[in-house]
Write a structure and sequence with these properties.
Shape: rod-shaped
Number of helices: 16
Strand content: 15-25%
Low-confidence stretches: 13-36, 551-555
Radius of gyration: 49 Å
Oligomer: single chain
């Protein structure tokens, strides 16, 4: 309850500041109008009559001000009787006097301005002054003040009661609408196409009702504040001006809304047309993505990005068409803001535009898709996400690398997954081993193919093959080529192949030596692991032969 009271007081203060803010402006307008119609004589915050003609050296404004001051002085003195106020007629003027005090004087010029005789005008002003002074004194009695406080209290309690009822009624309305969802409130459909779901319709109705609730609260506060101010004589003038301001504001808003209805209709027509055009495009491109609709030369993976680009262009075109119908479109402020935003966009969007263009080009060149294993520059990984601005790659070590599309476009993109996905031809991966000329090449081929045969994630068909890529001075280069469709396991496959090559070479008594290895083999331990050697294996000693005869023969 205390929280609601604080919120109520906060809203009350804000509303009061909004309402009273135009007070000075309304007063200035009133003074401007008075200069045309005459200057008012005011008592008890009411305009009694207006002085339009000057008298002698006194202007109309000075006469009105003097009469107002005299009436206020007389009204505040309760010892002076209202019945003592009477008319005193002379040749050219008629005076309204109280005992020995002149309250006002009327001339023939005043009567002519009012289009009445001086006697008629004098008698009318006399009754007005008596009635106004009587009311002035009655409203400042203790009983009148007590009644004003009581009416203020009743008005405030009524306001709190209205707000309490609103707090009870509106939540029930919201709950009722939620219960009616998918039952009483249907979805908007055209045949089997669901245009607007029941949930969306319900949420829209709830939003509209919440808006109506806010408008009602503000309207009640707008009426409440001047209503209670009118109970007190000192604030009655403010109350009247607030009512005048509200009336003028409502009148101005009504005229503006009525004049703006054609523009609202055009904006609504543009918005509705744009909405259904986008929905139709979404339906078509969804069917293209699913393959239910085919266009020669248009790939399924192009559907979503093409729809996004087309949606942006449709919205941009709709905005261009709708902007001239917005309020204030021709104002200098609107144009200045438009130019300012255009300059900011031009200065700050160079890189963004380059990346966007790069993203569009990458989409339609079909360089890669989500999930593809690629190599971009020195980075190898799987495509995690691709947008119009950046491409994200997840490396085998789960590191996310974000590359601007302009950088990707200027780099070489190696796609390990595209061939198997698009043509059905699996990826060929290869590794090279170098062995000396003393190892028979047929044996090497057999060993390498055996290593490939026991490696997981490789295809049996097509069969692996070995190429001898070079005959160098000290060794032969053997390249093992294998087929795989599991491009995401390239690092594991390479590791398994190398392990199996080592095992098969050791089992076949093939030493994998440094290509430039040169040494006296006699007397050295074999480099094959001991578990692959015979149990009675012993490192041989050096063989020393007598070369004397051979030396003599050659000499």
């Amino acid at each position: 309850m205390r929280k609601k009271l604080k919120n109520f007081l906060l809203v009350l203060v804000i509303t009061l500041s909004i309402v009273v803010s135009p007070f000075v402006y309304a007063q200035d307008n009133q003074e401007t109008a008075n200069k045309i119609d005459g200057y008012p004589v005011i008592l008890n915050d009411d305009i009694l009559f207006k002085i339009q003609a000057p008298t002698g050296s006194f202007s109309s404004e000075e006469r009105a001000s003097t009469i107002t001051h005299r009436l206020e002085t007389f009204a505040e003195d309760n010892s002076l009787s209202v019945e003592s106020i009477e008319l005193e007629t002379q040749d050219n003027i008629t005076s309204i006097i109280a005992e020995d005090t002149i309250l006002a004087t009327l001339t023939e010029e005043d009567a002519n301005a009012a289009r009445k005789t001086r006697q008629e005008l004098s008698e009318e002003y006399l009754e007005i002054i008596k009635t106004s002074i009587t009311q002035f004194r009655e409203e400042r009695t203790l009983i009148a003040k007590i009644f004003s406080l009581v009416w203020t209290l009743l008005a405030t309690l009524s306001l709190l009661l209205i707000f309490t009822l609103m707090d009870l009624v509106f939540p029930k309305i919201f709950n009722l609408l939620n219960r009616w969802k998918d039952t009483v409130i249907p979805s908007l459909r055209i045949q089997n196409v669901n245009l607007i779901s029941s949930t969306q319709v319900t949420n829209t109705l709830i939003a509209v009702i919440k808006t109506i609730r806010v408008i009602l609260v503000l309207l009640i506060l707008f009426l409440y504040i001047p209503f209670i101010l009118r109970f007190f004589p000192l604030t009655r003038k403010i109350s009247q001006q607030i009512f005048d301001y509200i009336f003028k504001a409502v009148l101005y808003i009504s005229e503006s809304v009525l004049n703006y209805i054609p523009n609202i209709f055009m904006i609504g027509l543009i918005a509705v047309s744009t909405y259904y055009i986008i929905r139709f495009c979404k339906f078509v491109f969804k069917e293209l993505e699913r393959g239910n609709i085919t266009i020669p030369g248009f790939y399924q993976d192009w559907a979503t990005p093409t729809y996004n680009i087309l949606q942006f262009l449709i919205i941009a075109l709709a905005a261009v068409v709708a902007v001239p119908y917005l309020p204030g479109f021709d104002s200098p402020a609107f144009r200045g803001i438009s130019v300012f935003l255009g300059v900011l966009f031009s200065l700050g969007s160079t890189s963004a535009v380059a990346n966007t263009v790069g993203g569009v080009i990458l989409i339609y060149t079909r360089a890669f898709q989500l999930g593809d294993r690629v190599q971009i520059g020195d980075i190898i990984g799987d495509i995690e996400d691709k947008t119009l601005l950046v491409t994200r790659i997840r490396t085998p070590k789960n590191v996310i690398v974000t590359l601007p599309n302009a950088t990707v476009l200027n780099s070489n993109v190696i796609n390990f997954s595209a061939s198997a996905r698009e043509t059905g031809i699996p990826l060929i991966i290869s590794t090279t081993i170098t062995l000396g000329y003393d190892v028979p090449w047929r044996k090497v081929h057999q060993v390498l193919l055996a290593a490939a045969d026991v490696t997981d994630s490789l295809l049996k068909e097509p069969k692996p093959f070995v190429l001898q890529t070079s005959l160098d001075d000290f060794y032969v280069s053997y390249e093992l080529n294998v087929y795989t469709e599991k491009t995401r396991r390239l690092f594991e496959i390479y590791s398994d192949i190398h392990q199996n090559i080592q095992d098969k070479c050791n089992e076949s008594d093939i030493e994998i030596l440094s290509p430039h290895y040169s040494a006296l083999r006699d007397g050295n331990q074999n480099t094959i692991p001991s578990n692959y050697l015979p149990k009675d294996y012993q490192a041989p000693g050096f063989r020393i032969e007598n070369l004397g005869n051979n030396v003599n023969k050659h000499s």
